[in-house]
Amino acid sequence: MPTEVTQPSDREVRVVRTFKAPRQLVWDAHTKPELVSKWMLGPPGWTMPVCEMDVRAGGAYRWRWRSEEGGKEFGFFGKFIEVNEPSKIVHEENFDPGDMGGPMSSEPAIITTLYEEANGITTLTLTMLFASKEIRDAAVSTGMTDGMEIGYARLDEMFKQAA
Amino acid sequence: MQATERLDLTFAALADPTRRAILARLATGEASVQELAEPFEMSQPAISKHLKVLERAGLISVDIDAQRRPRRLEVKRLEEAVVWIERYREIFEQNYQRLDALLEDLQAKPAKRKKKKD
């Protein structure tokens, strides 16, 4: 199943994705720094030179990405609020703009990640709760109205027809 | 109008299934209000209301010179609206495709080790 992105409320963004793997493994891939740094790289051309994680309630983490082309960096950092292996992690997320420009986030977003397994398939549900609608809109780069889902396939189809 | 305000309007317009269907119809070519009202089995005033929302959002335009005042799709605005969330989704999807590969790798390795022992 491809990644789904929706907006359950005006302060939230939710990402849902399934994986053909047991829950424990998906959990490990999200909580062991040596595994996280292998896949959480973002767009092509970016690397993750810093990936430190102390995965326990109150433990800190620090992620930093670097653009190999321009050498620019940005990152996220914060603390784990709740760690319930292998089904739930809640962590705070502060944005460090590094040399990308833009403000350092004043209030952290709260990220809740749920891992659910059925028939060997793990469903990951990641919900980002922002301090305000404005911060959410800035975080996802621009605004959108509440609780809306677009049929991407249908829109893609429209583009093809209109082209 | 700010870019974000404009996008808010665009997304509000896209949130309605009838309006998306109208856009899909216009993607095949321009159409008058009458032509649009038919397949949706809606009154012309009801369709006009939807068209106004789409027009304000910049998703369609009206050819006021032509007698039947056809509506046409503004593809650029639609692209603008879809692009940002699609890009956001793509970043996650790119990450998760790498994770798919890693998970496959992690699941294959223990099996190989077992085989060697046997």
Going by helix content, strand content and strand pairing, the class of chain B is mainly alpha
Going by CATH, the architecture of chain A would be 2-Layer Sandwich
Query: Structural class, judged by helices and strands of chain A?
Result: alpha+beta
- The order of strands across the largest sheet of chain B is 1-2
- What would CATH call the class of chain B? Mainly Alpha
Could you tell me how far the N terminus lies from the C terminus of chain A, measured between alpha carbons in angstroms? 27 Å
Strand content of chain A: 35-45%
Indicate the percent of residues in helices of chain A: 10-25%
Chain-averaged pLDDT of chain B: 81
How many beta strands in the DSSP annotation of chain A? 8
Topology pattern of chain A, helix = H, strand = E: EEHHEEEEEEHH
Profile the largest sheet of chain B. 2 strands, antiparallel
Number of helices of chain B: 5
Which chains make the largest contact? A-B, 40 and 40 residues
Domains of chain B (count): 1
Query: Which fold name fills CATH's third level, the topology of chain A?
Result: Alpha-D-Glucose-1,6-Bisphosphate, Chain A, domain 4
Number of domains of chain A: 1
The share of residues in extended strands of chain B comes to 5-15%
